[in-house]
Design goal:
By secondary structure, the chain is an alpha+beta fold. It contains four helices and three strands; from the N terminus they run βαααββα. The protein has a single domain, classed as Ribosomal Protein L22, Chain A (Alpha-Beta Complex). Helix content is 39%, strand content 36%. It has a three-stranded antiparallel sheet. It is elongated.
């Protein structure tokens, strides 16, 4: 089962964000959180918030019955797309003006579980019937 989280209009260029998200793609959630927690880049703060939101979305999809730690959640997909630019001007010599583009991006993160939920629930039900 997949859970998606999106963050839009992050005031950081998509290129800078891709340096961070390339390091967590395909990793387990706990490992990705460790990488993001100790990264010095500003983009890691946004990615960490989004990863926690995706895990929370996954738990809410299952009505908070299961914990994310039991099912081996991992970062299935993560990508950064360019968003709009804020266009500003700075004075330059000889009465000219130079354009400054303040870039932003949209970040999308998908988490999925490695352990199947249906098989796990079936095993729990079978074990309870055996014990009775």
């Amino acid at each position: 089962m997949d859970a998606i989280a999106k963050m839009k209009n992050i005031p950081l260029s998509a290129r800078k964000m891709r340096f961070v998200i390339d390091s967590i793609r395909g990793k387990s959630v706990n490992e990705a959180l460790g990488i993001l927690k100790f990264s010095k880049r500003e983009a890691s703060e946004f990615a960490e918030k989004l990863l926690l939101s995706a895990v929370s979305n996954w738990e809410n999809k299952l009505d908070m019955v299961y914990s994310a730690d039991d099912f081996g959640l991992y970062v299935k997909e993560v990508f950064s797309d360019e968003a709009g630019h804020l266009k500003r001007f700075r004075p330059a010599p000889h009465g000219k003006a130079l354009r400054i583009r303040k870039r932003s991006n949209h970040l999308t993160l998908v988490v999925s579980n490695k352990v199947e939920i249906e098989a796990e629930v079936g095993d729990l039900i079978d074990n309870e019937n055996i014990e009775d």
